[in-house]
Design a protein that fits this description.
Strand order of the largest sheet: 1-2
CATH topology: Ferritin
CATH class: Mainly Alpha
CATH superfamily: Ferritin, core subunit, four-helix bundle
Structural class: mainly alpha
Largest sheet: 2 strands, antiparallel
Shape: elongated
């Protein structure tokens, strides 16, 4: 049985009888926000890029990060909770402003900032995966591990591009 009235039963969705407590829902909202910010930042890069390869890389990053954001939005919705309203909000504005302000500094610095964003996401994913193990939310562990790998691959690409195109 749920510990609080806000706890949600996921048995119908996952067939596990898993309850989502408020902390797990809050983590999903945190990751939705993080991924949505990354989408806004990478979209700004893709939209302002003049180099075709560079633009295509950022379009790919947008596609993958949007998939992550959509997953978290879906999980929040499955818990009958409100998905944070970030589209057209401060986060999209911040992502665009950050993207536009870094672009004049060059691709090297843009990739450096992107790698810093990815490193923050990596830390958060690793902590969330540990929480899933200790709180018996194992059903989410493999998806989170897949997303962690995506973030690590993004970091590798950004660092490689940055190192092969010094500022």
């Amino acid at each position: 049985m749920p510990k609080t009235t806000k706890d949600k039963l996921f048995g119908h969705h996952y067939g596990t009888g898993l309850y989502m407590d408020n902390k797990l829902i809050a983590r999903f909202k945190e990751f939705y926000t993080l991924e949505t910010f990354q989408v806004a930042f990478y979209k700004a890069q893709a939209n302002s890029a003049t180099d075709e390869y560079y633009r295509r890389a950022f379009e790919k990053l947008v596609q993958i990060e949007q998939g992550h954001a959509d997953y978290f939005a879906n999980e929040i919705g499955n818990a009958n909770e409100e998905v944070p309203s970030l589209t057209g909000s401060f986060f999209q504005l911040a992502g665009n402003l950050l993207g536009e302000s870094v672009e004049p500094l060059g691709r090297h610095n843009t990739c450096k900032l992107g790698a810093a964003l990815e490193n923050e996401a990596i830390k958060k994913y690793r902590m969330f995966i540990k929480e899933c193990k200790t709180k018996n939310y194992l059903i989410f562990k493999y998806t989170l591990m897949d997303y962690l790998l995506d973030e690590e691959f993004h970091t590798l690409w950004l660092k490689d591009y940055m190192n092969s195109h010094p500022g």
